[in-house]
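Help needed: design a sequence for this.
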């Protein structure tokens, strides 16, 4: 592809996209990582926190494909315009939370929308990069996305201490400031007009559209879930394992502040713990291509599941924050390995016509694991306490490891041609 001369400077476009990622993941930290902190401070029980997060996850999972379908069609809603709308909506919702009466039902509704919107426009941020790359803009995606994770980590390191010292309204103030920076980021991240737009002429027909249509027609062969399962039996078992892994993963993330308080820590330690986990993801994700030359993606999925298990198991016997930090360090073998390994596994074991569907199933399994965790673990925490919740999560994760191991070692894996 011949690059648009206005997009020729890779450093500039990567910097612009990195700025957008950095502001997104800073907001992701204050809204998601500190959701329980904010809600508990307003009188929510752990069960109610779990229900709110489950509702938000379900709504975002429903909305993501709907929004993507609308954006794909000609019209005013684009990746960039939806991102701008989401940024504005989050800023408004955060401001509303600062002035509305301190009533749980009002906070429940507004925070559910806040959490849902933040999740919903996450894939749109990624789609923006590939849209601009197709237009000829030279963007180093890996570096920009990595800086997003670094932003999450750095935000967490500072916001925990500030919240502990000044209260949870720090989170809302931070949301508004971050959204203002996000607005600047999306304003300057504007795709230059191509030569057809400049000349006022119609662009040539896109080969990609015809190709996409042909793929959709071919995909009809495995659109039926039973047909898909018969073609990829190992993958379907891996999805069950994924639900179990992310039951435990989301249990820790969503109720991390309660676990930390049980160990004698507070919001400052929450910031350190999430900072450690996020920073350790970076080198692993950067080097996963080299690892895959030695270890197959399927085996890496089992390894990541075992790391999720160990990460959770440590917390059952944890007596202090040192054990918490040890547990968080397993993020580099758990989540940081799972994300790229699952993508490579789909690429290696599925025909091209099924790969998009396969990635969607992985995302759905992650969401389902989170929803079950939200609903079940919050209730267990309220009724039986921290140990019972952690024991439940560890047991569920262990079942997931067994399922994934059977899938990889006992069932035939379809090999993409």
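Sure. Designed sequence:
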């Amino acid at each position: 592809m011949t690059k648009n001369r206005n997009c020729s400077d890779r450093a500039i476009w990567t910097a612009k996209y990195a700025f957008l990622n950095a502001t997104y993941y800073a907001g992701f930290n204050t809204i998601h990582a500190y959701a329980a902190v904010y809600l508990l401070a307003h009188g929510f029980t752990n069960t109610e926190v779990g229900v709110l997060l489950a509702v938000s996850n379900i709504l975002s999972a429903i909305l993501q494909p709907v929004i993507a379908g609308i954006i794909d069609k000609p019209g005013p809603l684009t990746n960039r315009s939806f991102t701008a709308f989401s940024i504005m909506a989050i800023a408004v919702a955060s401001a509303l939370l600062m002035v509305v009466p301190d009533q749980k039902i009002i906070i429940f509704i507004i925070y559910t929308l806040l959490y849902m919107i933040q999740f919903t426009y996450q894939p749109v941020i990624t789609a923006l990069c590939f849209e601009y790359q197709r237009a000829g803009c030279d963007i180093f995606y890996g570096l920009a996305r990595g800086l997003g994770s670094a932003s999450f980590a750095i935000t967490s390191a500072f916001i925990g201490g500030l919240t502990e010292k000044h209260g949870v309204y720090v989170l809302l103030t931070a949301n508004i400031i971050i959204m203002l920076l996000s607005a600047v980021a999306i304003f300057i991240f504007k795709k230059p007009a191509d030569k057809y737009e400049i000349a006022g002429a119609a662009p040539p027909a896109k080969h990609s559209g015809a190709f996409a249509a042909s793929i959709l027609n071919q995909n009809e062969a495995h659109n039926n879930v039973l047909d898909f399962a018969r073609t990829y039996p190992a993958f379907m078992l891996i999805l069950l394992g994924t639900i179990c892994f992310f039951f435990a993963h989301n249990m820790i993330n969503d109720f991390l502040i309660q676990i930390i308080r049980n160990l004698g820590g507070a919001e400052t330690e929450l910031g350190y713990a999430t900072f450690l986990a996020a920073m350790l993801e970076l080198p692993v994700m950067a080097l996963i291509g080299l690892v895959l030359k030695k270890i197959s993606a399927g085996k890496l999925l089992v390894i990541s599941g075992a790391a999720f298990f160990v990460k959770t198991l440590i917390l059952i016997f944890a007596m202090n924050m040192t054990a918490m930090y040890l547990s968080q360090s397993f993020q580099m073998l758990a989540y940081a390995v799972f994300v790229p390994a699952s993508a490579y596994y789909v690429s290696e074991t599925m025909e091209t016509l099924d790969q998009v569907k396969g990635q969607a199933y992985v995302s759905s399994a992650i969401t389902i694991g989170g929803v079950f965790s939200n609903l079940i673990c919050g209730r267990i925490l309220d009724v039986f306490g921290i140990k019972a919740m952690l024991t439940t999560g560890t047991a569920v994760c262990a079942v997931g490891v067994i399922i994934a191991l059977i899938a990889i070692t006992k069932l035939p894996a379809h090999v993409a041609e």
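The domain at 210-410 is CATH 1.20.1250.20 (Growth Hormone; Chain: A;).
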